[in-house]
Every structure is written in C-alpha cells, then in structure tokens.
Specification:
Blueprint lengths: L13 H4 L25 H4 L1 H31 L5 E4 L3 E4 H27 L17 H18 L5 H21 L22 E3 L16 E6 L9 H8 L1 E5 L8 H5 L5 E5 L11 E3 L4 E3 L6 E3 L5 E4 L8 E2 L1 E3 L5 E3 L16
Antiparallel strand pairs: 1-2, 3-4, 4-5, 5-6, 6-11, 7-8, 8-9, 9-10, 12-13
Keywords: 2Fe-2S, Cell membrane, Disulfide bond, Electron transport, Iron, Iron-sulfur, Membrane, Metal-binding, Oxidoreductase, Respiratory chain, Transmembrane, Transmembrane helix, Transport
Subcellular location: Cell membrane
Family: Belongs to the Rieske iron-sulfur protein family.
Length: about 350
C-alpha cells in the first residue's frame, strides 16, 4: 500500500507533467523599469538672483567657520584653565571646555552645512541612471567616469563661483589649525628636566617617616631609611611628581665592605644614598637584605648590590641605581652635595 496519496497528473505543474521537457521560460527582468520622475527645476536654476543669494549663504557659512576657528585658537590661548561659568541647564562648567567645544563645533558644522547647501541649491540635481557592471572597469568605463567627473566639476560651479571656492578653501585651511594648537597640550618640551631632581647642594636629607633631618647617628648598620629633600612637603601640588624622582633610600655599610671606589668617595662614614626608583619600570624599592647588602624591587625582582655601586645582579633592570653624593653640614646633619649624576628610574631616549 502506498504511503502517500498520489496527486492527479492534471494537478501537477507543467514541468512535472512533461517529464524531460524544457522548463517554462520566464522573462529575464520581471520588474518593469519605473523610469525617473519628471525633473523639476529649482528656483536657483531659473533665477540667477536666487543663485547669488545661495552663493552668498554658502560663503557666509564658510566664512563663519573661519571666524569660529580663529575663536577656538583665541579661547585656547586666553581663557584660564581654572575659570568656570554657569550655563543653563548644564550648571557650572569649565569656561575653556565650553568655549573650545562651541567654537570647534561651529567651525565644523558650518563647513558641513555650507557644503550641503551648496550641493542642494547650486550643484546639478539631474539624476542620471547607470547600469551596474563588473568591478573590473573596462577602458571605456574608465573614460566615462573621468568624463562624468569633469562634467560634475563643471556643473558644480567651483571654477565659476570664486566666492564659494575661496571661502571654502579658507575654511578647510584654518580648521586643521585647531588640531595643531591642541598639540600644545602635550606640554612643554622636556629639555633636561628628566635629568634633574629636587636634590641640589646643601639640601638636607629628611626622614620620610619622622619628617626630621637625618644625622649620621640616626642611620645604623643594617637599617634601611627612606628620605626626601628638605622643603618638599606632601601638601605641595607637585609633590608626587618631584618625589617620583627624588625618593631616596639610605643604608649604612662598613666602609671596608664597599667595593666600588666612587661609592666610597660619595658616602659618609659608610652611609650611602641611592635612588629608591627601580631602573626597570620605576617601582619603589623597599626590600633590603643586610647580610648580602642587596636591595630588591618587589615588582619584578630586580636585585641591586648596594656594596658594589648598586649594580644589577638579577632581574630585568638595565641600569644601576643612581647614587647621591652626601656629606655632613656644620650642624651635623646629612646633606646632598649635588644632584644625581644620571637620570633616575627607567632609561629614556636622552640617557647617556
């Protein structure tokens, strides 16, 4: 017994009724071409006075963009960074941010609005249908594209309407200056600032914990003391920046255990002062092993021999720790005899 009912032959499609017969042919394009709607001329196409008004409107937008760009630069230079203004409904906001945002926004908007108004009122709006072809263009297509481009450039009126052309070029020339001016935010050139710290001759070594100047008797053999320059206080606005370069660790060794001659000459009664900043990635060194005289950075385990010029004996650090030359003043306090002889922390492009 059949598992399904057979469909009468007369109800089958013709393709199935005529087994082996050629399939019914259908038209290649079943959708009729609706064509283009009748072209309607704009008022600018038939009235030169209206075209001139549109030209002046476009030129005004481009000129306004130039003025806004100049305003952006002026605001960046003249508006104080710490000044705030009240703007409803935003409340109190930075005057510089508001002025920069408004002027740059107006400059960019006017260029876009001018280009759109130019295209909608003065450029040709005749729709030209074109068939799709393969991506690889034939020489004929290439020539046609070039001809279309030339025709479009001619119809845009760029050469004939010099007012629009000149103001557009002016606006496009000035707008990039906004980005050039913003490069000033990268800050002043570093110059030699990376080579210098807050240490200089006569600066007392101040204990970071007690905030008191250090005497030689305050540093005992085997101890690790952290110090900062005299006059550098935590409430100073640049404290973090300065302490990141000037942080000091002080240890006392037996003079006979110091292997490096310069280290011995720059020490005082076996007291040596080295930068606390690791020369790998700038982590603060905080571990000291008094038997081996090794200082260890806890971040990546770079190890420095403080009895041998703080040279690297293990880990990824690439340079020895900079040493600070120290002495004692007339009042018996430890003082710096100058700044570090080399840059502090990780190497940089001017190190040498």
């Amino acid at each position: 017994m059949s598992t399904h009912e057979e469909t009468p032959e007369e109800h089958l499609p013709s393709e199935q009724r005529e087994h082996g017969a050629e399939a019914v042919k259908r038209p290649e394009n079943p959708f009729a071409d609706p064509g283009l709607p009748p072209h309607e001329h704009r008022v600018q196409d038939i009235d030169e006075a209206a075209a001139k008004r549109s030209e002046r409107a476009v030129a005004f937008l481009f000129a306004l963009s130039m003025v806004a760009t100049v305003g952006f630069i002026a605001a960046y230079v003249s508006v104080p960074q710490d000044k705030s203004i009240y703007v409803w409904p935003l409340g109190h906001i930075s005057a510089m941010n508001f002025s920069l945002g408004m002027t740059l926004g107006i400059a960019l908007f006017c260029i876009g609005a001018g280009a759109v108004h130019w295209a909608r009122t003065l450029m040709s709006d005749v729709e030209i249908p074109d068939d799709r072809h393969e991506i690889g263009a034939s020489p004929e297509v290439t020539a046609k594209v070039k001809a279309d481009w030339v025709q479009g450039a001619k119809e845009s009126g760029l050469g004939r309407r010099k007012l629009i052309r000149n103001t557009m070029l002016g606006a496009l020339t000035l707008v990039p200056l906004s980005g050039v001016v913003l490069l000033r935010d990268l800050g002043p050139l570093p110059g030699t600032s990376l080579r210098h710290t807050a240490w200089k001759k006569g600066k007392l070594l101040v204990n970071m914990n007690t905030n008191e100047p250090l005497r030689p008797s305050d540093v005992v053999v085997g101890s690790l003391t952290f110090a900062k320059p005299e006059g550098l206080e935590e409430h100073d606005h640049d404290f973090q920046k300065e302490i990141a370069k000037a942080a000091l660790m002080i240890v006392r060794l037996q003079p006979e255990n110091i292997k490096d001659k310069r280290e011995l000459d720059w020490s005082h009664e076996g007291i040596v002062a080295y930068s606390k900043i690791c020369t790998h990635v700038g982590c603060p060194i905080s571990l000291y092993e008094q038997q081996t005289h090794h200082a260890l950075c806890p971040c990546h385990q770079s190890t420095f021999d403080l009895a041998d010029g703080a040279r690297v004996i293990f880990g990824p650090a690439g340079h020895a720790l900079p040493q600070l030359r120290i002495g004692v003043n007339d009042e018996g306090y430890l003082e710096a005899l100058g700044d570090f002889a080399e840059p502090v922390g990780p190497a940089f492009w001017e190190r040498g």
